[in-house]
Amino acid sequence: MIEELTNAVREIEHLRSNVYNDLGDFYFRKGDFANAKASFLAAVAVSPYYATAYMNAGEIHVLLKEYGDALKMYDKAVECNPSLVKAYYKMALAYYNLGDFENSVRSFKTYLARCPSAPETAEVLKNISILETMLKREKM
């Protein structure tokens, strides 16, 4: 009986988190980023292992230029689902926007190491080259 109730509660929580995530998608498409962010954060509050909702929250933080918060969301997404390699690509862009070129390069390299046939490979390699050149010039 207790196990059945526990399973029922888990199922309800899973459904609630999906509803919040879907609501966030709806707000996102309407351009209402404040409500989209609140909905994605509600999804992860209900289901703290919902990697997709963390990715979505990260996207909203980037759009709002909250890059530090975006990085936290992408880190949680990878923690919840290590195979979600696109998060490393998104981290690299967030680090770049924060002016943290070393971590940007590191994240781009992690992305390519985990997804060597990524469609953005040429672009990522170009970005790594540019950033490494910039880092070398800073050290001179």
| CATH C-level name of the largest domain | Mainly Alpha
Please tell me the total number of domains. Answer: 2
Backbone shape: elongated
Low-confidence stretches: none
Name the helicity range. over 70%
**Structure classification:** mainly alpha
Give the CATH topology of the largest domain: Serine Threonine Protein Phosphatase 5, Tetratricopeptide repeat
* CATH architecture designation of the largest domain: Alpha Horseshoe
Going by CATH, the homologous superfamily of the largest domain would be: Tetratricopeptide repeat domain
Describe this structure in words.
- The chain has 2 domains: 64 residues, Serine Threonine Protein Phosphatase 5, Tetratricopeptide repeat (Alpha Horseshoe), CATH 1.25.40; 56 residues, Serine Threonine Protein Phosphatase 5, Tetratricopeptide repeat, CATH 1.25.40.
- The protein is 83% helix and 0% strand.
- The longest helix is centred in the first third of the chain and has 29 residues.
- The radius of gyration is 18 Å and the shape is elongated.
- By secondary structure, the chain is mainly α.
- The mean pLDDT is 92.
- It contains 7 helices and no strands.
Compile the SSE list and pairings:
Elements: H1 2-30, H2 33-46, H3 51-63, H4 67-80, H5 86-98, H6 101-114, H7 121-139
Helix pairs in contact: 1-2, 1-3, 2-3, 3-4, 4-5, 5-6, 6-7
What's the short story on this structure?
The chain is mainly α and 140 residues long. Helices cover 83% and strands 0% of the residues.
